[in-house]
Every structure is written in C-alpha cells, then in structure tokens.
C-alpha cells in the first residue's frame, strides 16, 4: 500500500436486515473509495442506507455481500476480535446519538487520554478541544454538558490519538449554526492533517465543505461513481 492508496475502499456491498422474518434491503452493490486528506460526504434521503454503510465501513457490522478494505486490509474475512482491534487502532467513529459516544464516568480530558491510549498517543488533544470551543470543559463529565457539547466531545474523542480514518454519522444533527461552524472547521482541519474523513449528513453547511459527495438513494449509489 502507498500513501496515495485510499484509506477505505468497498466493492459491491449489499446488506439487508431481517424484519418479521423477511429481509429489508438497505444497500445494493455499493462501491466507493475514501481518500486521505479530504472530507468525503455521504448524502441521501432518510432511509437511503447512509448509517448502514458507515457502520459497515467502520467495521462495526459485516456486510452480507461485498468487500471492505481499511488501509489495504480486507476486513470482511477477519475474525471479530481482529476486526475490533483494527477498528480501535485505525478508525475513529462518531455515532449519531450522543449517548452512544461517551462514558458517563469519564471527564472530557479522560476521554481524550483514553482515545490516545487506544491508538498510541499522537496529535494535540488540547488544541482540538480549543478548536471545538471546549477548552474550558476538560474537567467536565458528559452529564454536565449540553447535547451539542457532548457531540463535539465525541468528535474530539474519535480523533484523539490521530486515527487515520475518521467516520461521523450526522455530526451536526444536534448543533446550532455556531457549533456546526466549529465542527465543520475541525473536520477540515483533520483532513488537512491527512486524515480520511467521511461523514453522513443532510446539512447544507457540512455539504458545502465536502471535497466529494457520494449520494445514496434507496441503498444504491446515485452519483457518477
Ligand atoms: N436495525 C435495523 N433493523 C431493521 N431495519 C433497519 C435497521 N437499521 C436500518 N434499517 C433499514 O435500513 C434502511 C436504511 O437505513 P439507514 O439507517 O442506513 O438509512 P439512513 O440513510 O442512515 O437514514 P437516516 O438519514 O434517517 O439516518 C431503512 O429502510 C431502514 O428502515
């Protein structure tokens, strides 16, 4: 693998969920690459399969069909244990629901220290907190923060330790304009430092800073691939 190779690549990914004994098709034959040093946006209407695809690319779920490579490593054939180890070391993930991202008993600073430890220390967590407008919150626990502040801490936690791949599911969903501006700035800054950044969004402010937009409709890639 060379530095020019994409950080993430998937090919022919299809997936369905069983609902009342019958499969509900969420993705059909999706192929894409996510380059380093850029912000790539996964767009599309509600229910189009964005979260499903992000979870599969983030090695949280295994697709029914297709390949998923992280930094040149095919992940769909790895054991659950090895996939989890690869995810922890190489991928930062921000879940859509703030409650899924943070541990109630850790302060903001402790989250960042944990993120750095999981990946081998790197980056500058204090600078990232400042950039996200959270410089004064390092000693606070999630319950002492608003939903929007928790979502920004989740982004800092996911980026702590500089994982090469950063995935975020609707990172501005809970945020007002000012906070969205901070998150958008942080996503661009992470891309400028060489991270591969992939976010799902409906938000025009996030779409505006995308280097590339990949559009899903009914689980199928709609843009010119
Ligand atoms: N756990 C699940 N069980 C059953 N069906 C599911 C599950 N998760 C998603 N689906 C279905 O899969 C399809 C894709 O859902 P997904 O959440 O990936 O879309 P999305 O584009 O992220 O939507 P949104 O923008 O509303 O978050 C939808 O038809 C949805 O109902």
Automatic annotation (TrEMBL):
One of its GO terms (cellular component) is plasma membrane. Residues 8-225 form the ABC transporter domain. Keywords: ATP-binding, Nucleotide-binding, Transport. InterPro entries: AAA+_ATPase (IPR003593), ABC_transporter-like_ATP-bd (IPR003439), ABC_transpr_LolD-like (IPR015854), MacB-like_ATP-bd (IPR017911), P-loop_NTPase (IPR027417). CDD domains: ABC_MJ0796_LolCDE_FtsE (cd03255). One of its GO terms (molecular function) is ATP binding. This is ABC transporter ATP-binding protein. It comes from Prauserella flavalba.
